[in-house]
Amino acid sequence: MREKKAVSAETFICILAVVFLFTYIGSVMGVSQMFNTLMNTAHGLLLDTVFFIMAISVITGAFSALLAEFGVIALLNRLISPLMRWLYGLPGAASLGIVTTFVSDNPAILTLTKNKKFIQYFKEYQVPALCNLGTAFGMGLILITFMIGQGGKGIVSATVCGFLGAVAGSIISVRLMLHQTSRYYHVDRAQLKEDRSVKGKTHDEPRQVYGKGVERIFNALLEGGQSGVSMGLGIIPGVLVICTLVMLLTFGPGTDATGAAAYTGAAYEGVALLPKLGQLISPVTRFLFGFQDPSNIAFPITSMGATGAAMALVPPMLKSGAAGLNEVAVFTAIGMCWSGYLSTHVSMMDALDKRVFIKAAIFSHTIGGLCAGVAAHYLYVLWNLAAGLLG
Known about the structure:
Layout: H1 9-29, H2 31-69, H3 72-88, H4 94-102, H5 108-113, H6 116-119, H7 129-137, H8 140-148, H9 155-184, H10 189-195, H11 213-234, H12 236-250, E1 254-255, E2 261-262, H13 273-280, H14 282-289, H15 298-305, H16 307-311, H17 314-320, H18 325-338, H19 341-351, H20 358-390
């Protein structure tokens, strides 16, 4: 940890940035309307989005705990293991990290790295890549359930395309990370080839069993549900702070009693700055991701810091027609692959005692997330073409 002077240049930069931002917003919306919108948006997000995500987290947490209690996750680990070395260049035991983070969140993989029976399967250069692997699948089950919960024809196929895109992005992220760590540790090509061999031991994490029969079922459901509550509470700051600000910069004015565009201080009004910036790069985002509206760029930007917050942007976009099924696929891929990596990578690498690779991890995952979005878009395009030919 570095020490900083109590007052430095960054102090004045921070003051200027805050003053400039809120002066700009206030000059467009009006000071009174700006503060009313801030409060009303945060309140609306808490009631309409956070509690919905928390409900999903409780259900998925209980379900995943039940699977873990009766060894289903261990079975999945065994089935997935043969693919791990071929796809990721990691031991088969890494599949347990995928399953664990998929049903919970990025940092869940850290608990596995503290287990000597788990970490013994990994070479030193492979350990930092677990950060990228875990992040690429963090909150996956919650995000997918949330997207499907939006309803509508074709939503499931779009979400599946998004999941496959996230898998593609995770492979790219991990492989890029391994390339950099293997160079740092001077791993020769012969060793890399051996480590990537599909012939590896399958590792099952030992399970501790408490109680019998029905008691085990209820214990698993209640403990898993409790973890969902904790996760739901944990996303509140990210959703209310980050998403409120992003919405303030994304959406435009509301309407008054006569139906004319006006700032009324209602929730979800804003200055529409991000769509203007998105318009500048819309040819690129349209080609890469198939985005139909400049405001769609708000989801990837928010996902960098908090996927839970980015999820709150989806219902208004779908309702207004700014996003469609293609965007659902891309949002699922990027949201799952990035999974708030800018807010977790530093602490996760620090917990792994691999701080030297923080920049490499962030760079690799940035590329991986972008590739995930591209893959999801073109997978969805191919799916529509195939459906059109067969239908």
